[in-house]
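Our consortium's second objective concerns turning raw sequence data into structural hypotheses that experimental partners can test. To show how far this objective has progressed, the report includes one record in full. It was chosen at random from the queue rather than selected for favorable results. The single chain below, 517 residues long, was entered without modification.
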Amino acid sequence: MVGRWRVTGYLGSGSWGSVYLGETVEQAGIDGDPAEVALKFLPPSIGTPGRRALLAEVVDRERRFSASIEHPTLIRTLAVETAEARDAAVDGATVLVMERGVSNLRQLLHDGIDPGDGARILAEVCSALAFMHEAGWVHGDVKPGNVLMMADGGARLADFGVTTELDGTHAYAPRIGSSDYLPPEWWSEQVGDQGVALRPTADIWAFGILAHQVLAAGRHPFAGASPHARAMSAQAYAHTGEGLLLDERIAEPWRSLIKDCLAPDHARRSAFTARSLAERIGGADGFADPGSAAAPAAESMRRTVLIPAVTVAAALAVVAVVAAVLGLRSGSPDKSAASSPRTGTVSGATGSAGSSSNSTPGSGPALTPGELRADAAVPAQYRDVISRAAHACPTPEVTPAMVAAVLKVESDFNPRFSSPATDSYGIAGWTPRVFTAWAPKPGADFMNPEDAIMAAGQYLCWLDEEFIKRKVPGDLAALTVAAYDTSTKSVTQAQGVPPGAAEFTKSVLEYARQFGV
């Protein structure tokens, strides 16, 4: 039992917890309670202090939103309970008791959706957003998985863990969300004490993505085989105007509406409110016939989107911008200087991050400078993720050897490293509030080595690119490492490595020379 609800079955799990079926116990029920509910269990042992704090914020946002407004197109959170159970993994869990859908739009897209049904569902979702925005709220995570299909065939918007109340033109939310549904400007927003700025136009953008998927058999309008790649394509589009892949079978007036929703910047998108879009959908006959693209195609949700032929110049422009935003940067949050184990004096450096001095003729293919040496003192279990983190960056300074050296100096490769005095934790010495800005995925944990290392690679990449743009004099690798220990501001003001970062920088670069070919 959870409050007045009995658990009757299992529905599924996600990064935050598990969802179960529940039924209202009749004798304890309250008028208006549905007979069946969904119970989302969020376990008390969800991880580090930072992640627990984020979870508490997510729960509080669900609670406040559900207590504030109600609408037929919004899933209600009926109660927030605390589980009492013999199982220690469940005892004390926070349980969100919600209205239950029979399916969600993501599953419907996978199975195939009738074009007419798709148009109706989009009208209902747009109506839900219009109501939310007019009531002063931004959803913040509009995507197919958060549109629930009800027993009567209706669609309802769900999952209000990122939903936040507007304060003037902006709201503020934790830096979580679904990367390939976030607008391009989201990645460059500053992260403040309240989180990252969120506007209604973020929901408009996400609705444009959603509408394209509904009307194009699940196809995303930006190229990429992963959410990360599609997010980069969207950022490239915002810079160049190239790369929006509207399915040619989507008919007018839907085509124009989707293009309006996907205007590349907030200013142009702000000309369209959710209410004005809902009125367009409801007021023109053409919206009832979205075209022929929304045909059942189970594999379409898994298919890699290919970029159509474009001019060589346009293609190169897109590639250049994708490279410039590869780190999915978030603005300029600075990583707090950490008091980490400085593991003794470094000696016996062999090779260098900028040369391949240890390769000899006839010894096989030469490794790229900066790759990890086979005999480098880097733990085997971290080598793959270190290489992936570095190779995600297009600039030559951020190499596997550099990433490994940062981890060595920060924590001596200790995934349980903890320094409460400096608020630094994990293998990469992350400050929790800063890690949130660079987390590689929703629900990522700075104490998880893979999450921490991937985030460190993204952060190093962004720092390197910042100093290229700012034309700060000096060795780029040294500037990047120094900023990792202090901040971009400190390095820029010093026009080089600040005195306080000199020891850290020297140690990292020496280890990079030891580790790299």
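The partners drew two points from this record. The domain at 380-515 is CATH 1.10.530.10 (Lysozyme). Residues 294-367 have pLDDT under 50 and may be disordered. Both points have been shared with the crystallography group to help prioritize constructs.
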